[in-house]
Amino acid sequence: MSGTYSVLGNHVLVLNKHYMAIRIINIKRAMMLLCKELAEVVVCDDGYYSNYNFSSWLEVSQYHQQFSPEEHDWLHTVKISVAVPRIVRLLFYDRLPKGGAKLNRRNIFARDNNHCQYCGRKFKTSELTLDHVVPRSLGGRASWENLVCACVKCNNRKGGRTPHQANMKLINPPSQPNRCPTIELDFNQGKYSSWKQFLDHAYWTVELK
Questions:
Q1: Do 194 and 93 lie in a common domain?
Q2: What is the pLDDT of residues 71-96, one digit of tens each?
Q3: Which of 47, 60, 118, 160 has its CA at a distance of 20 to 30 angstroms from the CA of residue 125?
Q4: What is the Cα–Cα distance from 9 to 14, expressed in whole angstroms?
Q5: φ and ψ at 84, to 5 degrees?
Q6: How many distinct structural domains can be found in the chain?
Q7: What b/e readout covers 34-68, taking b as 16+ CB neighbours within 10 angstroms?
């Protein structure tokens, strides 16, 4: 597609066929699912859902392009323009989302907001490490409650010791978040506001792919 680079960073919320949020994908992936008839577009308006397959979404897009183009982001091809969907529903997938946010490096950094949990300074992701609060050499495991962001300087200072042994104090005791920490969008306004009613009742476990 041409002329689409400004919107390719947008995200699309994916529901299973029971309207439960399961993940977030990029626009390219969403359009592939629609074109292959593996998903449909879901539009929320005042608590009511409207569902569109790919061909009917093209018709809706033509209408909006004529009367309300400012309400949508657009994917442009040589022949047509398509309104970017905000939500798609998988037609053949009913698995429930797993409980709990996924434990990975990206989610730990997001939970701690890229702040070293010892000195409190904020760093670029490339300048941070993960620290086991209770070192692995002392039986510490990789868990939400035992992993924190640490800058290289603080991590080297702490070494293979506990914070108490190193005379260092954690700024925030680590804990497991009750929602995916990488989702920090403002659902109360803007393009992703339609996600809120699904995520308020979901398990807050949707993962960025």
A1: yes
A2: 888 888 888 889 999 999 999 876 65
A3: 160
A4: 16
A5: -70, 120
A6: 2
A7: beeeebbbbbbeeeeeeebebeebeebbeebeeee
